[in-house]
Amino acid sequence: MRKLVVAVVVLAGFAGLIGVGALTALLAGSGGRGTGWSDCSADLGPWGDGAGRGERDAATLSGESVGIAKRIIEIGKQRGLPPRAWQIAIQAGKTESNLANVLHGDRDSLGIFQMRPSMGWGTEQQITDVDYAINKFFDVLLAVPGWEEMRPGEAAQRVERSAFPLRYHKWEPMAAHLVSVEGDVEGISACQSLPGASVLATQAIQYAQAQLGKPYVWGAAGPNAFDCSGLTQQAWKAAGVEIPKYSQTQYFQGGVHVPLSQAQPGDLVFWGYGRDPNSIHHVALYLGDNEVLHAPQPGESVEVEKLWDGGELLPTAVRPAADTPMAGAPAPAAGGAR
């Protein structure tokens, strides 16, 4: 909840921000091995296009990890699954176990994908059998509605059901490179059908704009009422990006931290007592031009207004869906397959 008395501030760094209308470019890789797959951008933040990163990351894998990636591809081919499915499995395996058939993990999590016997993934013997684990991962993936259209990291999360959904994006170029090289797939770009950060931000903002005038209700996340974090969560969910529900966890686990002076449309801005991240009590969606869209407080409705300070505006914004870990964020748990 924000203060009733607010002071409008003008941040000099916002002067050069571009408007939402200009954010329409798609991240599209150029076809062909070595240019599209390995150079795919894995982050949705502002740090480059991922050029060459896939090949560099793949070069750090152990022999066991490369062997497991090859086996994922072989089984995927045997089952007639498209290369995107292989990529999703490789990203999940790299995130969960570093593509190793480990015999330990968070609670009873085991194997390549940190599957848990207690959650019905199979017996300990089964989920530590490489072929069984790969086939089980594919079985669950195929049951996810619309997985083919999702970003690979999001599809991996839908299978793994991790408490840290954004971490799977990090290995997108590496997995794409392995599919290209080890799977002998040519003439396709890992990113050709994936929207870039600006497109996703535009989608999030469009959803939020459609909620203007709806009442603030504490704890609500739509469709007829919202609180501040419910609105930002649902806005980004409409763009296909999962972020946590509460404002404080959105700050620590919702994306990558950027200086407020570099905020772009779609970024999340926060208020906390004494500007302390641990006392965050309000979040809003930045629109550019020193404006925010938010669900203010009880008795008010979703609205657009000028960015205010009041001595509580945090100097750091959050850009959802980036794969770069945030300072101060808790370390991901070992297990993912819930």
TrEMBL record:
It comes from Saccharopolyspora phatthalungensis. One of its GO terms (molecular function) is cysteine-type peptidase activity. SUPFAM superfamilies: Cysteine proteinases. Belongs to the peptidase C40 family. Residues 198-325 form the NlpC/P60 domain. The lineage of its organism: Bacteria, Bacillati, Actinomycetota, Actinomycetes, Pseudonocardiales. PROSITE patterns: NLPC_P60. GO terms for biological process: proteolysis. This is NlpC/P60 domain-containing protein. Keywords: Hydrolase, Protease, Thiol protease.
